[in-house]
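Renewal narrative, Specific Aim 1. Our central claim is that a sequence can be written position by position from structural information alone. The example that follows is taken directly from our test logs and has not been curated for this report. It begins with the structure tokens describing the chain, in the order in which they were read.
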């Protein structure tokens, strides 16, 4: 029997604001426990929440970047539950009137190619505090620094059909959020958290099977792992003639297993109701338009432009737009007059090595352009340029000066070339014999040998005529 997997994702993203959602406390990771708190986020009696305008701004931009309809009026609601890290006894969230609905995100599925995943809704809420189970032996500690931090929850449609597709969706979503500077999306620090709904059904069936919710996945790779394990578990249950129970499963990254947590609370258990301390959130058309205008060019549009305007192959375009600083660097190099495909090769093969290590590009675009110009006018070979490039990092020395210092200026001098050619021919008598016997494609071999002998300094364009002359004599 063929089974189809159906996955929907709920992603919580912490917004890049200086202060929390409803009070003036700093919104910052890593401070000593319970130092970033006040009567509002501690839930003390009489304290009143005031919404953070910048958080609403970022949430609106996230919604617009995902093509959602932003509603002119949305409502903050109390989600009631008891937990030690929630001092108020309720979380301020949005329920039946969220900030935004009905968006979409185009992803590159490893199995199905480009496809559109629907976004059901995006709403604003505050974070809870954090329970620490490893700080004191046998006890649980509570840190409320995170209580009240601003979040958006982004809920997708159940449009994904494999764990790998779920991962591709997350990678693309993160890209968009980073481009728009909505969140730092740091999963290790908890600023991006993923819960997944997964079910299986017989291929061709249009009804959804019973879903489980999978939690506690701390990396995109672990989301893929956890969903694979859970999907396989459900298929096994169904094939044995059993029924999947609607439960919450916790993933254990160390053992690679999922185990059930508690029976799923239905949403009515939270007894949502409009927060009487907060009036409905009303946004003007103009204000929403301003947020739209503030969005940068998004990765998908940039990728299309790199292919159409710069004529890059899809692979290059995809690599370059993966992060905004890489795309910006590439465009700055092109701006300096480098032909786009050459610029792309240099960025992907050479410049990105340093960027991946340090997070910055240490060779400025104009200096890379000057190096590429030396290759173009034949002053240095492409091989030599690759040795010069790292020397340009964090230095003021010109490309030409480095080439001279390292003895890499290309030699087009016929006497010098002739000397290297003689040595190569003398060292490879068998190949000379075969060439003379008609195997003319060996010319490439000889050129390579001369380049090697000259340590990359010989001008490859000038080697061939010298070789041909000597081989025909
Ligand atoms: Zn506070």
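The sequence written for that structure reads:
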């Amino acid at each position: 029997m063929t089974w189809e997997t159906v996955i929907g994702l709920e992603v919580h993203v912490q917004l890049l604001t200086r202060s929390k959602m409803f009070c003036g406390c700093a919104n910052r990771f890593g401070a000593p426990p319970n130092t970033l708190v006040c009567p509002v986020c501690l839930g003390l009696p009489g304290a009143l929440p005031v919404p953070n305008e910048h958080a609403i701004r970022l949430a609106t931009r996230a919604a617009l970047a995902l093509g959602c309809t932003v509603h002119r009026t949305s409502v903050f609601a109390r989600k009631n539950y008891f937990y030690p890290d929630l001092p108020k006894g309720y979380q301020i969230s949005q329920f039946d009137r969220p900030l935004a609905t009905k968006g979409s995100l185009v992803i590159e599925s490893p199995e199905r190619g480009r496809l559109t995943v629907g976004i059901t809704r995006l709403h604003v809420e505050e974070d809870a505090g954090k329970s620490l189970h490893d700080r004191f032996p046998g006890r649980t500690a509570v840190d409320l620094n995170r209580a009240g931090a601003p979040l958006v929850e982004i809920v997708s449609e159940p449009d994904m059909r494999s764990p790998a597709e779920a991962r591709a969706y997350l990678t693309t979503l993160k890209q968009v959020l980073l481009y728009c500077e909505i969140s730092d999306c740091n999963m290790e620090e908890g600023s991006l958290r993923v819960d997944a709904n997964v079910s299986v059904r017989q291929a061709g069936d249009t009804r959804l099977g019973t879903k489980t919710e999978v939690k506690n996945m701390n990396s995109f790779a672990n989301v893929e792992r956890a969903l694979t394990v859970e999907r396989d578990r459900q298929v096994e249950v169904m094939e044995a003639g059993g029924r999947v129970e609607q439960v919450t499963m916790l993933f254990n990254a160390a053992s690679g297993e999922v185990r059930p947590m508690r029976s799923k609370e239905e949403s009515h258990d939270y007894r949502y109701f409009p927060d009487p301390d907060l009036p409905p959130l009303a946004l003007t058309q103009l204000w929403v338009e301003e947020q739209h205008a503030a969005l940068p060019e998004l990765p998908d549009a940039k990728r299309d432009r790199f292919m159409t305007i710069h004529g890059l192959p899809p692979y290059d375009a995809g690599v370059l737009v993966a992060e905004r600083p890489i795309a910006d660097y590439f465009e700055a190099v092109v701006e300096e007059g480098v032909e786009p495909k050459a610029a792309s090769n240099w960025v992907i093969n050479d410049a990105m090595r340093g960027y991946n290590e340090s997070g910055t590009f240490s060779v400025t675009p104009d200096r890379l352009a000057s190096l590429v110009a030396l290759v173009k006018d034949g002053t240095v070979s492409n091989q030599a340029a690759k040795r010069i490039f790292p020397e340009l990092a964090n230095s003021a020395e010109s490309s030409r000066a480095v080439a001279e210092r390292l003895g890499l200026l290309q030699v087009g001098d016929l006497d010098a070339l002739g000397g290297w050619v003689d040595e190569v021919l003398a060292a490879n008598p068998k190949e000379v014999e075969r060439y003379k016997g008609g195997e003319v494609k060996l010319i490439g071999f000889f050129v390579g040998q001369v380049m090697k002998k000259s340590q990359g300094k010989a001008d490859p364009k000038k080697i061939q005529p010298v070789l041909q002359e000597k081989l025909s004599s």
